[in-house]
Design brief:
heterodimer, A: about 250 residues, mainly alpha, 11 helices, about 70% helix, B: mainly alpha
């Protein structure tokens, strides 16, 4: 019985993948040979960032711990939950805080949505750091991957800013004072400190202007910047000869 | 029907870099050869489905974990932001608490600006740093000279940390430098552990020192700091 159902679905899927409409979208077409596997990566604008083939060794868990992949996964979760949260959020004082309360008491699954966004954000910061140390200890930053390491550092900084700007948005005591502490550090920068702080907050204190600026940074500018560099980061894996699978080189 | 092939010319090996004169050449692969050359003989699999399927499974496991976390553990939400009421202590997000802990010891321009800037610059130059790319044990060459430089730098660092009473950085510095000196103990490493220790390049030690120090500072800032940034035990709060 189970076998019959399985073959039914396989046939149906095969028929579907062979239709004119399907093949106009996915050029790979039906079939499971290496050619079709290759086409399904090469003919897809997103998967095309990756190579058609990869080293068997690179599949092993110990090589990467899948940390880069998992970081990307958190980015996707954060984009999804973030867009949903935007539907319920006004970047204004004190409405922002009232929206948090609405998420808690009015919106269906609002608490779950905010929880998932917050824990995924913490996970992303943690995974980015873990990924960096893993890459370092594997020696995967060495030639020809030097520049991809630098892009990784840029992504680390973007991730920290993403998390930091998101921290203010609930407009509770935790958010307000964390950003106040952080932006006070900014004013210690010689010469430009006060000006940079003013630019970042849109004023001399953390107020409604700061909330709006952080909102725009958090929801538009920084995610776009992150997506831009993530694309380059993945594309360069292919260009630099695939994932690094050698053991960290040490002197013998 | 096959005709007997003429004997191949006797093989002659010469040192020649002109490809027109010597069309078949042997490349000597040295230790510093890029991974691209080393990996040429590797077995390959199709990215789809082998790689992407595993990636999808990994993402699903992570997602399930995060969903469970979100179901059973609520994100914190305190009262409405009030500029007139400063909580004590006012803490930054956890990944900046290491930095905030540094601000406790150093003036803001050092702890908040100079040190983070140096860290970012250090991270960026890692792959371009020659000592690093060669990946030789830090004591493998010029041991005496390097030890002398090391002692000078270490004492300067320890003096600086003592002057600012930065115990939280001093402790890992002492531990890591002790391990480095243990690795440098003899010219020829004896035991397996000793050999492993002495095989690491300078960059390994610096990164490990950074990892241990950053983890310790973050842990102290997160769990051991109370009102006025005073030391508190997490279980007594």
């Amino acid at each position: 019985m189970a076998k019959a159902i399985e073959s039914y679905w396989t046939d149906l899927l095969g028929t579907l993948r062979d239709t004119k409409v399907w093949r106009s979208v996915f050029r790979g077409g039906a079939g499971s040979g290496n050619l079709h596997s290759a086409l399904s990566v090469q003919q897809n604008v997103f998967l095309h960032l990756a190579s058609v083939k990869m080293r068997r060794k690179a599949l092993a868990f110990s090589v990467t711990w899948y940390l880069g992949t998992l970081t990307l996964a958190t980015f996707f979760i954060l984009t999804g939950t973030g867009i949903l949260l935007m539907l319920y959020y006004h970047p204004s004082v004190p409405q922002a805080y009232a929206d948090m309360k609405d998420l808690q008491f009015v919106v269906s699954a609002g608490v779950f949505l905010r929880n998932l966004h917050r824990w995924s954000a913490q996970a992303m910061v943690f995974l980015v750091f873990a990924h960096m140390f893993k890459v370092f200890y594997r020696g995967a930053y060495r030639s020809p991957r030097e520049f991809n390491w630098v892009i990784g550092v840029v992504l680390l900084i973007i991730t920290l800013f993403l998390s930091y700007t998101g921290y203010l948005l609930p407009w509770d005591q935790l958010a307000f004072w964390a950003i106040t502490v952080g932006s006070n550090i900014m004013s210690a920068v010689p010469v430009l400190g006060q000006k940079v702080r003013f630019l970042m907050l849109g004023g001399n204190t953390v107020n409604a202007n700061a909330l709006l600026r952080f909102y725009v940074l958090h929801c538009v500018i920084l995610p776009l910047a992150a997506a831009f560099f993530i694309a380059i980061h993945f594309w360069r894996i292919r260009k630099d000869g695939g994932l690094h699978t050698e053991k960290a080189a040490t002197h013998e | 029907m096959s005709e007997p092939k003429p004997d191949p010319k006797p093989f002659e090996a010469t040192v020649e870099s002109d490809s027109r004169k010597a069309p078949v050449r042997v490349a000597f692969v040295t230790r510093r050869t890029s991974p691209q050359v080393k990996a040429q003989d590797d077995q390959y699999v199709m990215t789809w489905p082998e790689g992407l399927f595993r990636a999808a499974v990994a993402c699903e496991v992570l997602t399930i974990g995060l969903v469970l976390m979100a179901l059973f553990w609520d994100a914190p939400l305190e009262g409405l932001a009030d500029p007139m009421q400063t909580p004590n202590p006012a803490k930054a997000p956890w990944y900046f608490l290491g930095l905030q802990e540094l601000l406790h010891y150093f003036p803001p321009v050092v702890g908040g600006v100079l040190i983070p800037t140096l860290v970012v610059i250090a991270l960026i130059v890692i792959p371009y740093f020659n000592v690093n790319v060669e990946a030789q044990g830090v004591w493998s060459r010029n041991r005496r000279k390097r030890l002398r430089i090391f002692y000078v730098l270490l004492l300067a660092l320890i003096a600086l940390l003592l002057a600012f009473e930065v115990w939280a950085v001093l402790a890992p510095t002492v531990v890591i430098s002790a391990a480095m000196l243990f690795a440098a103990r003899e010219p020829e490493p004896a035991g397996r552990f000793h050999r492993w220790l002495s095989s690491h390049p300078l960059s390994f030690w610096i990164m490990t020192w950074f990892l241990v120090t950053a983890t310790l500072l973050t842990a102290i800032g997160t769990f051991f700091r109370g009102p006025g940034w005073s030391w508190v035990w997490p279980w007594s709060a």
